[in-house]
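sry for the spam today, last one i promise. C-alpha cells for design, 520 residues
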C-alpha cells in the first residue's frame, strides 16, 4: 500500500478487502448475489483502521506544563529537531525536538510545581482523570494504532488488537486502584514525587502507559521520554491529556535520544527513575543513580527459554513458539528466543515450525494480513544481521523458509531459526531482539531446567506439557519473572511483569506495580 511522507494512507483497497473479510457470512452472500442481490440497508461498516487518516504536523516540540513548546535551543540550528521515519518505507514522517538539558530542566520544574496540588487531590478525583484518559484512548484507538504502526513498523493487526487495547486496559486498571491505596497499604501512602521515565521503541505507547498509569494513580508527577525512533504516539497521548484536562505539569513529555534520557536520569530534581530498555544502558543508569536518594526500577532485556516437553500438544506448541518469537518481529523483551525441545519430538517440532514459517506473511505493516512487519530501525537490523552471520560462523544452521517477497525499501528480516545450536553459542546467550530463534534439545526434566536457567537473564519462560504436575514442578524452579504454561506472550494489566538477575528489578502491572510509586 502506498504511503506518502505525511503517513496518510489511501483507503480504497484496504476497505474493500475489509468488507468481504469482515463479513460474518461472506461466502453465503457472495453466492446469493448471483441470484437475488439484496442490498443491506442500515448496516454500514466502520472504516478499517489502516484507512483512518492521521493528521501529522510538520514538526513537534516538547509537551511541558500542559503545552507543546518549541525546544529551548535556537529553532534554526540543525540539531534542534531530528526526523522520525517509517521503517517500512524509510520515509521521513515528521521531525521531533532533541531535548536539551534546559528542556529537561523546564519539564522537571513543571512537574515539581504541579506535585503539591496533584498529590493533594482526593484519590477518587485522580482516578477519574485516569478513567477519562482510558476512554479517550479507546475513542482514538484507530488513529493511535495507525500512528504506532507507521512510526515503529509493527503490524497493524498487533497495534490494533494488542498494543492499543492493552494501553487503555492499563489506564482503566490503575484508575481503579487510585482510591484503594489505603486498602492496599493500610493508610493513604505518600507519592514518591517527580518521576523520570525513559522507555524503549518496541511497544512505544504501551510502555508509556505502564510508566504513567501507576505513577499518576499514586499522586506522582512525571517527565517521560519516548525512544528516539518512536516518539509519535507519546506525543499524541499528550494531546489526549490536554483533552481530558489533566492539570498542566502533571505529565511532561520530552523527546530526544540517549543524551536526553541521561539528562533526565541525572537531574537533581528527579525523585525516582523508571527505565525500560537494554541491560547496557540499565547498568549505566544504576551507576548514575547509586548513592543518590533517587529510587530506581529497571526493566531490561532477556533471553527467555521456551520449553517443549514430548507430552505437549505439538501443533499448539508450534503456534506458541511462533507467538513467542515472531510477535512484534521478535523485538520483545520477553521473547521466547531459546527453544528447548525434548529429544523425542525435536524432528516433528522442527518440521512443523518450518512449514509454519513458510506461511508467515512478511511485509507492509499497514496490511492487516501481515504477520511480521518491519524491523524498527536500520541500526537494529544491522544488529540482527550481525547475529545471523555470527550464528553461521559459529557452526549453527540457519533456516529461513519464508516465501514472502520483501519490499525494496525499508528494514526487513524474515522470521527464521537456528538449528544445531550449542548453549555456548553467542546466539544462544545474547539477546538478538529480532525474529531469530535458537533451537536446542534436552533429554530430562532436570536438564531442561538447568539449560533454561543457564543465562544471566530471567525475564520470562514458557512450558508446554500435558501434565499439570510437570507445569507446577518446572515453573517453580525456573528463574523468571513470568512463566507461561501452554501459552506465550499473554499480557494483562492485573498481572505483574518484571525480571530476575540481569533482566532488572521492580514489577510493572498488578498491585505490585504500585509499589515503586508510593512511599511508606
Ligand atoms: P536502549 O537501552 O538503547 O534505549 C532505551 C531508552 O533509553 C531509549 O529511550 C533511549 O533513548 C534511552 N537511553 C539511551 N541511552 C541512555 C542513557 N545513557 N541514559 C538514559 N537513557 C538512555 O534500548 P532499546 O534498544 O531502545 O530497547 C531495546 C531493549 O529494551 C532490549 O534490550 C529489550 O529487552 C529491552 N526492553 C525491556 C522491557 C522490559 O519490560 N523488561 C520492555 C521492552 C524492552
Ligand atoms: Mn519511527
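last one done:
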Amino acid at each position: 500500500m502506498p504511503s506518502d511522507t505525511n503517513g496518510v494512507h489511501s483507503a480504497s483497497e484496504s476497505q474493500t478487502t475489509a468488507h468481504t473479510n469482515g463479513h460474518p457470512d461472506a461466502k453465503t452472500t457472495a453466492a446469493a448475489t448471483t441470484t437475488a442481490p439484496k442490498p443491506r440497508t442500515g448496516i454500514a461498516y466502520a472504516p478499517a483502521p489502516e484507512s483512518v487518516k492521521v493528521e501529522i504536523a510538520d514538526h513537534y516540540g516538547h509537551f511541558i506544563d500542559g503545552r507543546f513548546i518549541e525546544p529551548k535551543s535556537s529553532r534554526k540550528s540543525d540539531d534542534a529537531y531530528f526526523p522520525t521515519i517509517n521503517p517500512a518505507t524509510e520515509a521521513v514522517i515528521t521531525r521531533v525536538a532533541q531535548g536539551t538539558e534546559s528542556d529537561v530542566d523546564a519539564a522537571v520544574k513543571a512537574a515539581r510545581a504541579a506535585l503539591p496540588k496533584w498529590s493533594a487531590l482526593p484519590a477518587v478525583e485522580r482516578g477519574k482523570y485516569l478513567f477519562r484518559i482510558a476512554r479517550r484512548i479507546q475513542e482514538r484507538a484507530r488513529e493511535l494504532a495507525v500512528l504506532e504502526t507507521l512510526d515503529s513498523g509493527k503490524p497493524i493487526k498487533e497495534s490494533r488488537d494488542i498494543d492499543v487495547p492493552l494501553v487503555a486496559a492499563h489506564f482503566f486498571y490503575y484508575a481503579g486502584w487510585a482510591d484503594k491505596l489505603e486498602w492496599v497499604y493500610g493508610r493513604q501512602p505518600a507519592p514518591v514525587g517527580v518521576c523520570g521515565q525513559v522507555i524503549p521503541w518496541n511497544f512505544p505507547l504501551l510502555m508509556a502507559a505502564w510508566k504513567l498509569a501507576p505513577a499518576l494513580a499514586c499522586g506522582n508527577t512525571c517527565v517521560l521520554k519516548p525512544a528516539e525512533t518512536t516518539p509519535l504516539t507519546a506525543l499524541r497521548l499528550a494531546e489526549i491529556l490536554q483533552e481530558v484536562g489533566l492539570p498542566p505539569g502533571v505529565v511532561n513529555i520530552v523527546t530526544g535520544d540517549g543524551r536526553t534520557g541521561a539528562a533526565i536520569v541525572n537531574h537533581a530534581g528527579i525523585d525516582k527513575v523508571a527505565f525500560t530498555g537494554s541491560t547496557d544502558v540499565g547498568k549505566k543508569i544504576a551507576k548514575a543513580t547509586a548513592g543518590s536518594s533517587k529510587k530506581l526500577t529497571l526493566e531490561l532485556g532477556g533471553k527467555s527459554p521456551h520449553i517443549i516437553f514430548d507430552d505437549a500438544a505439538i501443533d499448539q506448541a508450534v503456534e506458541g513458539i511462533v507467538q513467542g518469537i515472531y510477535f512484534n518481529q521478535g523485538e520483545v523483551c520477553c521473547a521466547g528466543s531459546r527453544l528447548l525441545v525434548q529429544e523425542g519430538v525435536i524432528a516433528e517440532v522442527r518440521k512443523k515450525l518450518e512449514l509454519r514459517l513458510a506461511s508467515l506473511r512478511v511485509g507492509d505493516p499497514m496490511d492487516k494480513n501481515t504477520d511480521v512487519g518491519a524491523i524498527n530501525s536500520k541500526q537494529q537490523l544491522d544488529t540482527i544481521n550481525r547475529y545471523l552471520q555470527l550464528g553461521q560462523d559459529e557452526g549453527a544452521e540457519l533456516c529461513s523458509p519464508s516465501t514472502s517477497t520483501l519490499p525494496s525499501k525499508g528494514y526487513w528480516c524474515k522470521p527464521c531459526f537456528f538449528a544445531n545450536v550449542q548453549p555456548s553459542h553467542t546466539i544462544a546467550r545474547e539477546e538478538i531482539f529480532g525474529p531469530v530463534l535458537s533451537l536446542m534439545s534436552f533429554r530430562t526434566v532436570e536438564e531442561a531446567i538447568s539449560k533454561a536457567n543457564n543465562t544471566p537473564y530471567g525475564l520470562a519462560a514458557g512450558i508446554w506439557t500435558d501434565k499439570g504436575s510437570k507445569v507446577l514442578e518446572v515453573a517453580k524452579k525456573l528463574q523468571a519473572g513470568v512463566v507461561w504454561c501452554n501459552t506465550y506472550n499473554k499480557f494483562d494489566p492485573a498481572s505483574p511483569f518484571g525480571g530476575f538477575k540481569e533482566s532488572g528489578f521492580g514489577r510493572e502491572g498488578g498491585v505490585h506495580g504500585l509499589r515503586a510509586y508510593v512511599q511508606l
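The mean pLDDT is 92. ok im logging off now
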